[in-house]
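Most newcomers find our protein records easier to grasp once they have seen one. Nothing more is needed to start thinking about how sequence determines fold. Here is such a record, shown just as it appears in the course material:
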Amino acid sequence: MSTYIFGHTNPDSDSIVGAISLAYLKNKLGEDCVPTRQGDISPETEFILNRFGAEAPELKTSYAGEKVYLVDFSDLAQAPKDIKEATILGIVDHHKLGDITTDTPLECWIRPIGCSNTVIKEMYDYHGVEIPKDIAGMMMCAILSDTVIFKSPTCTKIDTKAVKELSQICGIEDYKALAMEMFIAKSAVEGATARNLNTRDYKAFDMNGTKVGVGQLEMVDISVLNDRIGDLFADMKLMKQEDGLHTIMILLTDIMKEGSQLLVVSDDASKVEKAFNTKLQDNQAWLDGVLSRKKQVIPFLQPQF
């Protein structure tokens, strides 16, 4: 029986590519593994898959009775609803340790670096397995995405080293030019609904018993959304009601200006203001230099709850 590998709900490029790259490694090591996904493919991920001629992993939302590996998350709020009925064989991640627990020992690779695919690159190196050109290219793009082309404070020397080595394997010398093409694809908003924009990279968190949702939309120029802000807020209010959230936040991250416009709908917005030492105006605030949800948002928000 196959073992399934997947990332968090509302998957980003790291979680999709991570499922593919880890599945290939595990198969080479003698395990029968299949990459899957919990949600739709984003425009950025579609760009990566098309660029390297790869197919999207199978959509699968139920894992009861299955053996699984988790990539890019360890929070119950980002897992399938029946995850407690699955056997978790391992976790590969670069976030804080979440609240998922297991009944048996597991393989666990969690590193404080910029991307799960950097961790997977280390796993390939550890096991002495050669990375195919197409998978190397996708892994390289995932790292460039998660580190915002090395601008994110989460980026480490290990990430930059991995990108350089992966670029040699896939034969792409000007990887920063490719990364800009990728971010332009990621910035596409024409025809997208407010729900699509709010959930392209959205994660739910249980903060000491309080449900909080945080989405992030990374773009080359967030000004193209100026006339969509009202729609985004209207949909955020619906999401808050549908999911029983205390707070929902969307970060519109401008990778060129290197900061994020914060949109907030909350039962107590003062918690958000305290977290970021700012004052909201019309439920918004500009957070200069904030590019990382993992390092610059969640660690400051969670203590408020």
Summary: Residues 3-184 form a domain with the inorganic pyrophosphatase (n-terminal core) fold (CATH 3.90.1640.10). The chain has a mean pLDDT of 96. Residues 92 and 109 are 5 Å apart (CA to CA). The chain has eleven helices and eleven strands.
